[in-house]
Specification:
3 domains, 16 helices, 12 strands, 6-stranded mixed β-sheet, alpha/beta, Rossmann fold, globular, Arc Repressor Mutant, subunit A, 6-stranded parallel β-sheet, about 375 residues
Length: about 375
Amino acid sequence: MKQNIITYFQSSASEASQRKAIGIYRAARHLGWTVLRFDIKSLTQVRNNLRYWEPRAIIVDAVKLNSHMIFNPVFRQLPTVFLDPDQRFSDGRISCVVQDIDATTAAAADELVKTDFASFAFVAWPGRPFWSEARGKSFTKYMKQQGHKVTLIRPSEHPYNRHSVVDSLEEWLTKLPKPIGLVAATDKMSMHVIEAANRIGLSIPSQIAIIGIDDEALLCENTSPTLSSISLGFDRAGYLAVDIAKRLTMNPNQNPIVERFHNPHIVIRSSMPRTSRHDRNVTVALDLIRTRATDGLSAAEVFNCFTCSRRQAEQRFRAVAGRSVLEEIHAVQIDRAKRLIEDPNQKLTIIPHLCGYSSPQFFQRLFKQTIGLTMSEYRRKIGST
């Protein structure tokens, strides 16, 4: 009899893949199953791992897999669920969890329309991978429905390196009418756009507003200015993959199952205007909070970004951010804590320190006042959803 083991084969070390893994671990723990995670190095390695561990089901992060890999017989031996495959394969031939691309691009478009900009663009990823092409097509369609035309930007890929991409983006951005609202295929491409805009002296976000996709927090919060991005809920995708795997193991004759993960939301950072009137001092203050709130940043340090009185600075900050400086610091710290708690391997006792607090008791009180649950109660709650 096979053990209650799921093997998760990941094709990427990206933050998105890690978020998928968190969802997989959480759902598997709820079922009493064990997850073993491996990189996909070769089909021989996959075959050897399956032979050794004898899992009940397989989950594969398929975002980088081609048809040869997806339809290889090695993945036909056991119930297999593909996470994030090329959506041309989600036609009933395989069990999979796919992105709701239309919902993703609609969220970006709705945010850009609020800016009252008249010019919009989509920056594709070189090489035309399926997810870039699908996101660009969907964004263009949605904006057309809103009465707006979208310029499709294809950065140079000859030679294929960062310098050629950024150089070609400079040419595009110089020619396009301003101000412009722009969506990039991924956060990494958005990073290139920010670099190009900074090189030619474009003011972000007053002359160019930028939205990425995937919300890779480590990247988004370390660009200058910080990058707004669409969070897709990759942990939910992992949870759905385990649910499909369970259904397939219970019914070996089950037809392929396709689920869609959706409900994307935009995380607003400094590359998007928060009001129609841009306040550079507030932008600098928000960037400081985003990058240093979990290092023990104080409100007094934030007010140093302003040349006016503390009272006037607080008023200007609240007019843009919708809350006080201290409330913004706490919001970033709580958001960081929630991400850490969602990782089943993260010890709760050290989370306050990772969020910038030397007093665990104070942070625990802040967390409960904000969320309505203790950290342990919050972990149990998300583990059961």
